[in-house]
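Task 17 of the worksheet. Students: predict the tertiary structure of the chain below and write it out as structure tokens. Keep your answer in the requested format; marks are given for formatting as well as content.
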Amino acid sequence: MLQLPALYAENIHRWLPELLTYARLTLHIAWAAFLLAIAIGLFFAVLRTSRNRLLRAAAGIYIEIARGLPIVVVLYIVYFVPPQMWPGDWKWFSTYFGAVIGLGVHGGAILAEVFRSGIEALHKGQREAAIALGMTPAKAMTYIILPQALRVVLPPVTNYASGLLKDTALCSLIGANELMNGAKSIAFAEYQPMAIFVLAAAIYFVMSYPLSIAARFMEIRMSHGR
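Model answer:
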């Protein structure tokens, strides 16, 4: 541990730029997977709150399966199974797409329950009043229910985003060029695993800490109705 300052003084100019390149790819994966998870989560949350029993059952099956599987298993299934089931030209399906889809599918199940709880936390009379005023159920959900539910689900969604950023490290298992995969490559090449992984941990912290600050800021803004 005492050797770390000397190691960093000697090698930081080589290690840091390379790790930051991998960190940028990590942010790309996390951001794309987060957007996909939100889209999937909203879709299945609406199905879960539907009055159609079949739609609710279908959404429930997806949520229980995707949420119940470890992220690593989902990543393996998404990346390795489709090319074996449907042989063909899969060169376009890179580890980046596999990582984004795998994290998005798993996260969508988590956020579906978060969004569902936010929707159901609102009084049912608001939906009924909106429909009574002439709105369609879709417009009532879009303009009345979801904007209010956003305030309820903001903290858990932000916590999920922070966890997602760290879960991208698992994408190294399918070969994605994210921060952890890059850190392992440098550590094995330089024979300095402790120094490299401590530096990678610091980068992860720098990337994730602003999320908690932004969440608190948005909560304060929304609590004042702005």
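Marker's comment: The two ends are 48 Å apart (CA to CA). The chain has eight helices and no strands.
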